[in-house]
Recover the amino acids of this structure.
């Protein structure tokens, strides 16, 4: 595919619509599996996902469904500051995560296992899922919308902002979790934020969707 020039930046290769759709599906799957692993180990994590996992300890609702519900107020912010296209994709992603979580709960049994493994693997899956979505014009909603907006509008690194918000969520979770579970929950949040911090940096990645490319002309 020919490369297209971008103002004040290097030439880029555009994503096709199929590539965007496939990446968003992969992001939904990774996040849903990560949530399931953390829930099975009785852990939480940072951000909206952490709040969903914490609430799921008290209600018999999938954390993926709670995740979508908690995202609802943030869609208003997304529409105002990130645009209608980003918001539409983010809404679809939230529904996809909820739907995939329901499927996993109904068809797959994940043993509680070792909390260390769940923290590292689950947190990494959440981070990679978030990264896949962000790279293809969508967010996970909630805190993800806020961090991406602050990065675009203020230049704040999304990973650092995520870590600060995660600390607040974990502080609230500390009221209900045993110290060892809180420690591994912090590890999961660190793994998730580290993925975003290391690989979601302006200028490091040059792929853009055809829609965004046309908007720049």
């Amino acid at each position: 595919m020919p490369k297209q020039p971008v103002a004040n930046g290097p030439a880029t290769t555009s994503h096709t619509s199929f590539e965007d759709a496939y990446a968003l599906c992969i992001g939904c799957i990774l996040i849903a599996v990560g949530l399931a692993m953390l829930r099975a180990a009785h852990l939480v994590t940072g951000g909206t996902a952490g709040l969903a996992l914490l609430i799921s300890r008290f209600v018999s609702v999938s954390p993926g469904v709670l995740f979508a519900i908690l995202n609802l107020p943030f869609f208003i912010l997304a529409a105002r500051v990130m645009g209608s296209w980003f918001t539409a994709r983010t809404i679809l992603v939230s529904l996809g995560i909820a739907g995939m979580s329901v499927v996993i709960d109904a068809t797959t049994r994940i043993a509680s296992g070792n909390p260390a493994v769940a923290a590292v693997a689950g947190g990494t899956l959440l981070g990679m899922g978030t990264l896949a979505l962000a790279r293809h014009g969508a967010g996970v909603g909630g805190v993800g919308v806020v961090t991406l907006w602050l990065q675009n509008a203020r230049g704040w690194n999304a990973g650092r902002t995520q870590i600060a918000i995660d600390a607040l969520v974990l502080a609230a979770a500390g009221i209900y979790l045993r110290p060892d579970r809180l420690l591994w929950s912090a590890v999961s949040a660190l793994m998730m934020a580290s993925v975003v911090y290391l690989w979601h940096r302006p200028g490091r990645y040059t792929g853009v969707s055809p829609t965004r490319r046309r908007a720049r002309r």
Observations:
- Confidence is low (pLDDT under 50) at residues 1-7.
- Residues 86 and 138 are 5 Å apart (CA to CA).
- The longest strand covers residues 9-12.
- The first helix runs from residue 17 to 40.
